């Protein structure tokens, strides 16, 4: 009898371990949107581990975590341009999947100009960005003016008094856990521009999916780390030059 109880205990222990080993998305802690070139890779810029460098002309938006749900239309992409006002024209965009433009109908209780996407000046007296825009639920609070200001000052030597906020609505992206949307800008973003994302799942009481400060994209005067394909092309070019030079010397 004692041996049987020990055996049952061992089976129960391994069974419990196996159950804990299964990764199940937590509905109360949804994944975040990563932004970068590509998302989740590249060198860190501020304070060793805070921001992702992005190009002035293209970036990627990723919903982190396989198994996370498809998100509702529209997905929002939000840019913060240092010192920009309503006269700034947010560049047009082209997406790898779906369509997007600055402005669009106000979604998720947020407020912005439906034609230009301009939402106003995000400054020291503002709440965190998502609350400030009026998005419900608001989500991550790390994107506040103090964080943005200090990061831009450290990375780009830009002492921004405020950031002009412009909202893009992205439709038919079909974004789901682990997938990435490529975004190409029709004109370069100003240096020091922040880019974040916001979405909601399709639950009856939806959860927000936002970009935390530690994954926000920031354009910079320092070029982003080249992608592996670019490094291979550069290496092949240098090798070709070396071979050509050697042949010239031997001729």
Concise structural overview:
Helices cover 24% and strands 24% of the residues. The protein is an alpha+beta fold and 251 residues long.
How would you explain this protein's 3D organization?
- The chain is α+β, with helices and mostly antiparallel strands and 251 residues long.
- The chain has one domain (32-235).
- It has four helices and twelve strands; from the N terminus they run H-E-E-E-E-E-E-E-H-H-E-E-E-E-E-H.
- The strands form two sheets. Strands 2, 4, 6, 7, 8, 10, 11 and 12 form an eight-stranded mixed β-sheet that branches.
- A hairpin with a 7-residue loop joins strand 10 and strand 11.
- The radius of gyration is 23 Å and the shape is globular.
- The relative contact order is 0.23.
Find the structural class using helix and strand composition: alpha+beta
Helical stretch tally: 4
- Gross geometry: globular
The CA-CA distance between the termini, in Å, is: 90 Å
Mean pLDDT: 79
Unreliable parts: 2-28, 223-231
Number of domains: 1
String of helices and strands = HEEEEEEEHHEEEEEH
Defining traits:
251 residues; alpha+beta; eight-stranded mixed β-sheet; four-stranded antiparallel β-sheet; globular; disordered N terminus
Secondary structure elements and pairings:
Elements (H helix, E strand, L loop, with lengths): L1 H20 L11 E4 L15 E3 L3 E6 L11 E8 L10 E3 L3 E4 L15 E5 L6 H5 L11 H12 L6 E9 L8 E6 L8 E7 L7 E3 L6 E3 L8 H23 L1
Parallel strand pairs: 2-12
Antiparallel strand pairs: 1-3, 3-9, 4-8, 4-10, 5-9, 6-8, 7-8, 10-11, 10-12
């Amino acid at each position: 009898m004692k041996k049987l109880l020990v055996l049952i205990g061992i089976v129960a222990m391994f069974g419990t371990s196996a159950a804990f080993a299964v990764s199940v998305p937590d509905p109360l802690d949804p994944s975040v949107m990563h932004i970068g070139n590509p998302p989740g890779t590249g060198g860190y810029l501020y304070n060793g581990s805070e921001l992702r460098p992005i190009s002035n002309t293209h970036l990627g938006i990723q919903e982190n975590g396989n198994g996370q749900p498809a998100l509702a239309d529209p997905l929002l992409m939000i840019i913060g341009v240092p010192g920009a006002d309503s006269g700034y024209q947010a560049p047009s965009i082209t997406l790898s999947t779906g369509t997007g433009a600055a402005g669009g109908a106000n979604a998720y209780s947020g407020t912005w100009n439906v034609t230009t996407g301009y939402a106003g000046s995000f400054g020291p007296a503002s709440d965190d960005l998502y609350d400030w825009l009026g998005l419900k639920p608001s989500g991550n609070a790390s994107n506040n003016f103090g964080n943005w200001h200090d990061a831009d000052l450290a990375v780009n030597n830009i002492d921004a008094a405020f950031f002009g906020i412009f909202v893009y609505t992205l439709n038919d992206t079909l974004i789901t856990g682990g997938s990435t949307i490529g975004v190409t800008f029709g004109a370069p973003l100003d240096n020091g521009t922040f880019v974040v994302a916001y979405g909601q799942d399709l639950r009856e009481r939806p959860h927000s999916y936002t970009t935390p400060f530690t994954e926000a994209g920031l354009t910079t005067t320092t070029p982003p780390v080249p992608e592996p394909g670019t490094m291979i092309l550069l290496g092949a070019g240098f090798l070709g030059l070396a071979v050509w030079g050697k042949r010239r010397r031997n001729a």
